[in-house]
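step 3/5: co-fold with N~2~-(3-carboxypropanoyl)-L-arginine
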Amino acid sequence: MSLTEINFDGIVGPSHNYAGLSLGNIASASNAGDTSYPRAAALQGLGKMRHNLGLGLTQGFLLPLPRPNGAFLGAIGADGSEDRRLLAAAWSASSMWTANAATVSPAPDTADGRCHLTAANLVTMPHRSQEWPDTVKQLRIAFADAAHFAVHDAVPACFGDEGAANHMRMGSAHGAPGIEIFVYGKSGGPFPARQHEQASRAVARLHGLDPARTLFVEQNPEAIAAGAFHNDVVAVANERVLFTHEQAFADPESTYAAIRAALPEAEIVVVPADAVSLADAIKSYLFNAQLLTLPSGEQGLVIPLEAWEHPRVRAWLDTMLASNGPIRRVLPVDVRQSMANGGGPACLRLRVVADPATVDPRFLLDEAKIARIEAVVAAHWPEAIRPDQLGDPALADQVIAARCALLAAVDLSELA
Ligand code: SUG
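step 4/5: write tokens
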């Protein structure tokens, strides 16, 4: 069996819109009310998948969830006419950010030798709290092979859990036993700390992780207050490399020491605040990157175009590339529609280390399937949505029909 990292990107749903629903997410707040472009958004996301597939990597996808979600409004006795924010929540396409779908512990790390996935309850934001029951349905199909996978329901709502966005795994290789680093928040100044320590500890227990190879680390409250609503906005890890902003963690020196004690070969690339401030990091999403092991064995960083075009970030990247560091390539991609809601390349993917042969092949991509999905998007996704159109019955019919067409095209109509 050969264990490989598979990136499951969320396909941007047909109701993608800018409603300003996420307190503490600066992009979401500053683009609230703008017109969104769902078709372009989905094509940008598929473009990133094609880009990464073209690097020789294994690529999968997860489907948009059913929207508008009438059951969500029904459960709170609403029909959407009472409050535009509740209506927008029921229409949100936020499941595109699959880094928040679940936390994943690959087989080499777990007590029973299976890959464990726990859906994230996402309770801090109402529009995201409705995702997990539908997410888990999808995960149970994609990872149905019980000899290799265990899929858990979300932890109870008293413990806020945001999934893989606050979880990093390091090790000598994807297929080797790794260390798992859970990053939680205690305080975020004016903004909520979405990941609770007890949720992280619950997930680690459910996955049967070895306490000697599991770290629980507090996120820097200043980072949350500056707009790092998830740790993956200020740090990313892959195999032996951690790429982090110097202000990501509450106690950076002890965090680095604990990582080095658990993984002596760890290489920690710290970006100092005097080169890239927290504000620049959050605006450019430099760290919301996919740090990938390329088939050559080198590591490459898939960053948003916004980071490549940011003068101070670009200067730092140029210096990094000229040095002899562990990150050898920088690969910019255009995911601007997702970025405008605070979702960069790393938010759009869930990493699962597994043998691709054990995953339901309907969730895996090749060139032909990407082209098929693009054709569905081109034919059915709305071109533009203004927030005042949410609730429009004709638009609702189009959004529902678009998702059904996609399900049929990938042979997953059982999720209708
Ligand atoms: O939860 N934005 C998402 C972005 C998630 C990014 N994910 C990671 N960092 N892994 C969020 O804040 C905005 C929706 C709106 O405002 O319409 C939103 O939900």
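step 5/5: annotate
The pocket of N~2~-(3-carboxypropanoyl)-L-arginine is lined by residues 18-22, 25, 28, 92, 94, 97, 99-100, 125, 128, 165, 229-230, 232-233, 341-343, 347 (CB under 6 Å).
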